[in-house]
Design a protein that fits this description.
Elements: E1 4-7, E2 10-13, E3 18-24, E4 31-37, E5 44-49, E6 55-57, E7 65-69, E8 75-80, E9 89-96, H1 102-108, E10 113-114, E11 118-123
Parallel strand pairs: 2-11
Antiparallel strand pairs: 1-3, 3-8, 4-5, 4-9, 5-6, 7-8, 9-10, 9-11
Length: 124
Amino acid sequence: QVSLVESGGGSVQSGGSLRLTCVASAYRGHSMGWYRQAPGKEREGLAAIDETGRITYADSVKGRFTISQADNKKTLYLQMNNLKPEDTATYHCAAVTRGTTAEHLAATVDYGYWGPGTQVTVSS
């Protein structure tokens, strides 16, 4: 069992930045990533870093969001720049199957572990 807790969400204006942090209770060689979910919308994988350090992003956030991981692998970050109103959602981190990319993150979350999320609200 792995527990994850996110922090760093908040309310910002369009064009602003936020940095999200996720702390895991353990690291067991899985891929880790960030996904978001807004009311009435499907879960969307945003960024993932696998056990080899390979990083992948969804097209919707490429160039604006940066995922990184602490040396101990148990802390995950998401730097979000140039935020837009359509980025408003609850952001979750997840620990999932090895080799998972951002494209497949949303589909694999149910088979792994995820945190309760942190709310990000971007106003225009």
